[in-house]
Amino acid sequence: MPEPLKSKDKHGAPFTRPPEIEACLARLESVDAVARLQVFAITSRKSKGYVPSEALTHFLRRAWAVGAQSEFKQIFELLMKRVGQSLCSTISDSRMAGAQSIREEIIGRLAERIAKDCNGRFAMLDFFEVRFDLALARFRKTVLRQIGPTSVVTVPLSTDGDEGQDISLEVEAAAADFLGGAPEKIDDPAFRLELDAAIDALPDDQRRVVGLLRQGFQIDSKDPNIMTIAKMLKCDERTVRNRRDRACKTLRAALQEDA
Question: Which of 51, 83, 89, 207 gives the lowest tally of CB atoms within 10 Å of its CB?
């Protein structure tokens, strides 16, 4: 039987999956992973055997929890394919300037949310197991309000977005590198604004790496149960480090020029 969800609504009542989703999960638990992946690959809602995205989200989380890395990766890719198809219909190239970049940003941020959920920091996917389409629509609108149609904002400097939290060690090391031996400048509000603006101007691949570092994610880990930047971006750790190094070089030059 699927585990109960941890999140609660505004009245304090725990989230509950719809009966049809609970029945779907119970049915899918009785088959092996190979059979589940075959039906998960069905993308048309009109097709026989189509599995709701709520169920994919559940088995994605479960695969991570039990260390089934191959299954997790395959479900992740199938779920992101569905998300991409949904975004193409709601953020189309014909109706919005820079639509592709915006879709990529939303998918990237959703991947970050999945990573946080996998690492046990928050129960950030509970509502996606209850009403996936509504959860995705709300998430999409939140990101669009934050980034606007043509610009993208970076994530906060702290590891979880709350004021007063410590900056991750990776960020401190990077800051020391491109601040020329004066990392204490990171505490200057004016400098933070300059830093945010410089990060916004980075190429997308470098900005994504810096954004994940600022949230406290590791580049790589020998522990298979830890979600890392390399796993999220689907590349090896050397590629991530190269992007980080190029970003630091660019930021150093930009900040020294501003100074």
Answer: 89
